[in-house]
Amino acid sequence: MKAAIAWWDLSRSDQTNASLREYLRDEGVEPWEHVPGLRLKFWISDEPTGRWGAVMLWDSTADPDAPLPPNRASELIGYPPTHRMAFDVEAVVEGLHSGHPLERGRAFAPEGRSS
């Protein structure tokens, strides 16, 4: 497996963690549900430092040249990720949990919605 991280420093952008959270809820998540070889993608934020990003976990057999959904985050933010890294995954484990499916995240939680 492979892992990739894309991370933006939002200090030069008009976008905020809250506005990007709305983007995820409205349109940003669904296109990634149909990407062959993508095991998991989760979006991350650090509001105190104004950072936003995503972590992706890929099957080893995923085609690195396969088309991906348009990078709408870069379009909204106004520039490509400040940092982009790719790694080999050495091991994966799923810990003890409630057995429920993964939560959808803060963007879909009632407190993550703006009025």
Which features does this protein show?
four-stranded antiparallel beta sheet; Alpha-Beta Plaits; globular; 115 residues
Describe the structure.
The protein is α+β, with helices and mostly antiparallel strands and 115 residues long. The protein has a single domain, classed as 2-Layer Sandwich (Alpha-Beta Plaits). It has 2 helices and 4 strands; from the N terminus they run E-H-E-E-H-E. Strands 2-3-1-4 form a 4-stranded antiparallel β-sheet, with no helix packed on it. A hairpin with a 4-residue loop joins strand 2 (38-46) and strand 3. The chain is globular and about 35 Å long. The mean pLDDT is 90.
Short synopsis of the structure:
The protein has 115 residues and is α+β, with helices and mostly antiparallel strands. The chain is 16% helix and 27% strand.
